[in-house]
Design brief:
2 copies of one chain form a homodimer. By secondary structure, chain A is mainly beta. Chain A has 2 helices and 8 strands. In chain A, the strands form 3 sheets. A 4-stranded mixed beta sheet of chain A has the order 2-1-6-5, with helices on one face. The model of chain A has no long low-confidence stretch (mean pLDDT 94). Chains A and B meet through β1, β2, α2, β5 and β6 of A and β1, β2, α2, β5 and β6 of B.
Chain lengths: 123, 123
Amino acid sequence: MDNARETGSDLNPRFDRDGLITAVVTDAASGDVLMLAHMNAQALALTVETGLAHFWSRSRQSLWKKGETSGNMLAVEDLRIDCDQDAVWIKARASGPACHTGARSCFYRRVTASGLEPIDAAG
Amino acid sequence: MDNARETGSDLNPRFDRDGLITAVVTDAASGDVLMLAHMNAQALALTVETGLAHFWSRSRQSLWKKGETSGNMLAVEDLRIDCDQDAVWIKARASGPACHTGARSCFYRRVTASGLEPIDAAG
């Protein structure tokens, strides 16, 4: 393990073979996980610079400013990076549903031994 | 997009080319993101079955029961899956530091325009 990467103060993301790190977005108010996406170097730089979450869309293979078309942007309240710098955690204020399905969070189903159960939207 | 996968009640994880999905662990009490790891089918099944978080270690290429050596297990309070079933969110009670560095959370540094800043452990 690269010790400087774990203990240092230099941003040195460990991008995967596709040039990406993982980004987890939580709701700054509720603490709920809203979505999970990926960032390349440019998306990370733009997120830091603008305070709005940017990702790399693997399906479209393009830079993706969250909310650019839907209007549901994610304003960054806090941005953190993990020990080995291959993941970031964004605490955000969401201006609308984070999920493309219209759900507030992408994690709208519970995994149980007998299958998936929808989460009460108020839950 | 596979509609049944997004709206249905069948567990049908979309494993990546390495046979993995991403797992985000948050602290059930504080809502903080503790760690991010990966699961293969067996790790997911064992997590559901035992109520303790299991992962797949990409570095060791082996099944990994979190806390098996450190004692710092993660007891699952809630397990959710996202819209396209390539990520799960575990709300857990942590019996100790989640990070191998000894930190409570792997996300112990803030990303700023001028580099990384350590987070106050009490913060």
